Amino acid sequence: MLVIENCRLTWPDFSADYSMRVDKGDLCAVIGPSGGGKTTLLHMIAGFETPESGTLTFEGQNLLPLEPAKRPVAIVFQDHNLFPHLTAAQNVALGLRPSLRLTDEERVLIDDMLDAVGLKGFDTRKPGEMSGGQRQRVALARALVSGRPLILLDEPFSSLDPGLRRDMIQLVGELRRKRPVTILMTIHTPEDVADLADQMVFVADGKVVASDVPSAILGGPLGAKIAAAVSNT
Ligand SMILES: Nc1ncnc2c1ncn2[C@@H]1O[C@H](COP(=O)(O)OP(=O)(O)OP(=O)(O)O)[C@@H](O)[C@H]1O
């Protein structure tokens, strides 16, 4: 379980105080108005931002003393952070072995992962030779191949057209059935994940305002506020 308790961050124009829980193996959608603190929450879990107080544990392990590379966390950004001079297979391999010196077994694992994200035969392509959706598949494969149990997806598919975005979200659902991981995903279109997510949290003004199953969040008293927030993003 991911447990965040009163993690505070203070900047001149923004302050946050996060408390939430996500069960092991669950997919948690993080929604809320622009500037409400969704990305900051993910950055804090990944270790890019350090709270001045509070506790942050995953499976009982205190993450706060750990630098980002030592955390059991893989993050996929909206701009996917692929290296343009490396092939799809090499970009995925970075998630497993930053030196890119791979064993035969690791090569097979990377091939299997490219296959799993629907990129069989794309292994020698470079990011510039792939579509936006294909690049996001590479980034997703890199996060999954890392074997890290907590995956953070920061608006990973928002630049894709609605049909492709829904395909990618379905793909996340399929992949997590194959390999159990806990996922937090920020998203501006909550309806796309309503059927897939186990949990939905609404983040506004630096706080987790509500946390429940998606149907309760979207159909509950916050529904109108959420619709307004989401339509403004
Ligand atoms: N390192 C930082 N220093 C100062 N302020 C920051 C820093 N990081 C984030 N902020 C501020 O924190 C607030 C929340 O930003 P954040 O990116 O978390 O919002 P968000 O909910 O992800 O928004 P969006 O949906 O538009 O991506 C913003 O006002 C932002 O300017």
Summary tags:
ABC_transporter-like_ATP-bd; 6-stranded mixed β-sheet; binds adenosine-5'-triphosphate; 10 strands; 32% helix; alpha/beta; 7 helices; Rossmann fold; 4-stranded antiparallel β-sheet; 233 residues; ATP hydrolysis activity
The helix-strand sequence is EEEHEEEHHHEHEEEHH
Which fold does the CATH topology of the largest domain refer to? Rossmann fold
Helix content: 25-40%
Cα shape: globular
Major sheet attributes? 6 strands, mixed
Task: Summarize this entry quickly.
The protein has 233 residues and is of the alpha/beta class. The chain has helices spanning 38-46, 88-93, 104-116, 132-145, 162-178, 214-219, 223-231; strands at residues 2-11, 14-22, 27-31, 53-58, 61-62, 73-76, 150-154, 182-186, 199-204, 207-212.
Characterize the structure shown.
- The chain is built from seven helices and ten strands.
- Strand 1 and strand 2 form a beta hairpin.
- It is globular.
- The protein starts with a strand and ends with a helix.
- The structure holds adenosine-5'-triphosphate.
- The site of adenosine-5'-triphosphate has 12 residues, from helix 1.
- It comes from Microvirga guangxiensis.
- This is Thiamine transport system ATP-binding protein.
